[in-house]
Amino acid sequence: MNDHHSHAYVEDRSPGTGRLRPRAAFASDLPVLRLDGDWRFRLASGLDDLTADFAAPDFDDGAWDLLAVPSCWQMTGLPGEPRYGAPAYTNIHYPFPVDPPRVPRHNPTGEYRREFDVPDAFPAAAAVLRFEGVDSAFAVWLNGIRLGDGKGSRLTTEFDAAGALRPGRNVLAVRVHQWSSGSYLEDQDMWWLSGIFRSVSVAARGIEDFFVHAGYDHESGRGTLAVDVTGPGQVSLTVPELGITGADPAGPHVIDGVRPWSDENPRLYQGELVAETGERIPLRIGFRTVAVVDGVLTVNGRPISLRGVNRHEWHPLTGRTLTGDTMLADVLLMKRHNVNAVRTSHYPPDHRFLDLCDEHGLWVFCEGDLETHGFEPGGWHRNPSDDPAWREAYLDRAVRLVERDKNHPSVIVWSLGNESGTGANLAAAAAWIRQRDDSRLIHYEGDWASCSYVDLYSRMYIGVDELAAVGRGQEAPTADPADDARRRSLPAVLCEYGHAMGNGPGGLSDYQQVIEAHRRLAGGFIWEWIDHGILRHAGQDDHRSFYAYGGDFGEEVHDGNFVADGLLFPDRTPSPGLVEYKKVIEPVRIRIDPAACRITVLNLHHVRHSGYLDFRWTVEDGGEPVGSGSLAVPATAPGATSTVEWPADLTAALDAARKDGSGHEVWLTVTAVLAADETWAAAGHEVAWGQGLVVPAAASSPFPPAAAIAHDGYVALGSARFDTRSGLLVRLGDLELDGPQLDVWRAPTDNDLLGAFAEPQITAWRTAGLDRMHHEVLRVAPDESGLTVTARLAAAGSSSGLHVVYRWTACDGPDAGQARLRLETTVTPDGAWPVPLPRLGVAMSLPGTDAEVEWFGPGPGEAYRDSRTAARVGRYRSTVAAMQTPYVRPQENGNRHRVRSARITAPGGTLLITGAPVIDLTVRPWSTRALAAAAHQHDLAPDGRLHLHLDHAHHGLGSAACGPGPSAPDVLAAVTAAFAVEFSTTR
Ligand code: GAL
């Protein structure tokens, strides 16, 4: 038996021993034995608790558990209790003392065993044993022979199996350590998970490796193809579509009139490498050339604009182990939401994901498995990035990244890693990549201050003003003039922006405007794609499920729900943030000019003409469709604009709507949908839309006021009843009500609560007492034409307050049984108000746990003042239950912005609300207090009342959890304000 008692590899800095040279991930028709499935498993508590002879072929593992490979062992048992350890979440901090390269003695270690049969026909004498992902360090024995050990969790490791593999029964034994020196290099913001989490196989060894070089000359339209093949023996290249048959792969083959690869036209030429042994390897060749031209990021001679997301692999039940279907779901969701780029933050994904990017068309920033952020709190003291002892480990990660993924046309940029400070090891990794592959650019955000070894000036979370300065080339200078000059010659990207945690991000359209205004700005990537919530049951016998986040597994240090900051909810339902992003980045922009009776279509594509889209128009009168048709838009070239006059049928529909005298708003909506099926969506899928108000609403009829009459204990005004003392509306017709009264508080969003770069907004709000305001009624005064209630809203201990005057008027209304009641609220700050208000509106409640809600105004989803681009005016029907947005940590949500009118059909009656002219509307089955107190969705239960918020305005959402707060126009300052709303009921 070989040495399996030495565990030095766990803590030494070596990236591994006994491994084969890294190479591309590719399929071959040589036989492969897939070893995924149930393995025998035992979890040892540390190196002192290992099973002595576990690697011996005859070791009896019959009593051991069965564990699926691939899987993350901490995810086993979910959504019930985790069976092996538990997931733990930290963003920056290591979950153990920082003492590199040492790791804790308590080091959970998985012992895995798997028996498998090798058929006689399998070429056992020339085979490799391949691990596609093992977290974080492991050692391998085949039939009792130690093959080696490895680190670099999200990279492939191969061992030479020849000599150990034999026909018939084989036993593979693998020891996997949760912590290793490698953990210091894998401090990405994510759950700490362990195990053999990607596939394992034994593959016959044939062609060793190859590197496809496929460039495109946009001036001549010529493609150049050369494939460097590492033997053994003679290998030929065939690409039938290009007329290449049995040729020398090295060529170079120059092909006229080739169609280039891009995100929009991901043209792949199918080919194959054929070895003299008969082995065949399929190739998918995409021709493209990446270049920086005059400081602009171009592909195939044209500037590209990255409308991207940061994706790191996630599934709420399996963690970082994903099926092909989940990867495909991600790619399709991205494409369907107009996303054209993905940064594989912060490690190389399962290589099949990159195949999908090649196939469906996504630009990829392919990132190395590297982050040492946990050294930052210690001032980067002992940071591996600048310590020669770690140089080999850094180079190893860069080499394995590039070698594995080098044949993907979608990969246009290599990224060294993330948040690892700066240092010679990063520079060395960049230098190695540059000499190995000069066809792509090199990215690493951490080098932004000097940009001495990167090709892109990359920033994260800067505000729009700074971004605009970068766009103009006016960023603050670097220390070194040479670096400074170089940096100013580089294109700039936002490798992370728009932190999508909870309700938000706000302000995406501001970013997009700046990006589109400056050629230097190559776009960016939202942080991040998906919320990393873990599906759990509420209790052993309580199978209500919820999404767990940091701290829910009793971690000693953790970062709470900072792990839930994606555009998708954990179950991959798009969040309002993704719906907003889709609209903000739409690749054609449709503008409607009602005055000129024209529609303009601006094509923002990189290479695609607009001809693949069908344009359709719809006219809606008060939200009801009254006409629709198709719109002939000339095929518009990328960068060009077409203007279309309104066609006759559209004009006729509008004329009819104008004449019908309904007095409603008439809107024209134009959509651009796929004319034919694409690989990523079916014909009819909507890509972009534009909307214009063609006929504004008629002014509402004047209000003949009724007198308010004081009775014993109540005041009557039309069909409304008010409590004499509180001045609150308690009844309207038959409907029992409670309120409305001024409300300035909201259940804090994550962006309200956290502040990565500034004091969180919540601090000032709490200091001002905005979460504990008292509503003091000063006067309830009925008169001949209505009722005036005056009050003051203020917090205990504070001399500042808000004076509020509620002026109620009523009339009997045009229909019998329907009375109109109008509320005008005037708010005047009193004393010093240096803090913005979370919201400004009135709150009330009515009986019920759910209700149908129909409204006319923007929708269908929630919208806030700085995240409202995706909401379009229409008539929508929903329910209170469906109008709640289930953010992983409950918080303010569900606002319908600038609603014109709404009808709430509750068990106790129907309430009609009309904005005068518009009002923000939120209805929920629980109070703000309950919403704010809930840690998870299952903590919320309807309390028997429907809580209604009618808001004049909200404070913007911003992105302060990690980035800037709302921009100045989206700050809700406490200034004098007046707003009005009307109520009526029907039985
Ligand atoms: C960035 C980091 C990401 C993530 C994000 C906050 O600084 O690169 O990995 O932590 O902040 O969610």
Explain what this protein looks like in three dimensions.
It is a single chain. The chain has 13 helices and 58 strands. It has 987 residues and is mainly beta. The chain has five domains: 8-204, Galactose-binding domain-like (Jelly Rolls, Sandwich), CATH 2.60.120; 209-291, Immunoglobulins (Immunoglobulin-like, Sandwich); 325-531 and 574-581, Alpha-Beta Barrel (TIM Barrel); 586-695, Immunoglobulin-like, CATH 2.60.40.10; 708-986, Distorted Sandwich (Beta-galactosidase, Chain A, domain 5), CATH 2.70.98.10. It has a 16-stranded antiparallel sheet that branches. Strand 55 (896-906) and strand 56 (909-924) form a beta hairpin. The longest helix has 15 residues, at 391-405. The radius of gyration is 32 Å and the shape is globular. The mean pLDDT is 96.
Give the class-level CATH name of the largest domain. Mainly Beta
Counting copies of identical and different chains, the oligomeric state is single chain
Strand content: 35-45%
Q: Which fold name is given in CATH as the topology of the largest domain?
A: Beta-galactosidase, Chain A, domain 5
- Tally of structural domains: 5
Could you tell me which ligands this complex binds, including any ions or cofactors?
beta-D-galactopyranose
Distance between the termini: 85 Å
The name of the CATH architecture of the largest domain is Distorted Sandwich
Low-confidence stretches: none
Number of helix segments?
13
* Principal-axis shape: globular
Number of strands: 58
Helix content: 10-25%
Average pLDDT taken over every residue:
96
Going by helix content, strand content and strand pairing, the class is mainly beta
Radius of gyration: 32 Å
| Biggest beta sheet attributes | 16 strands, antiparallel
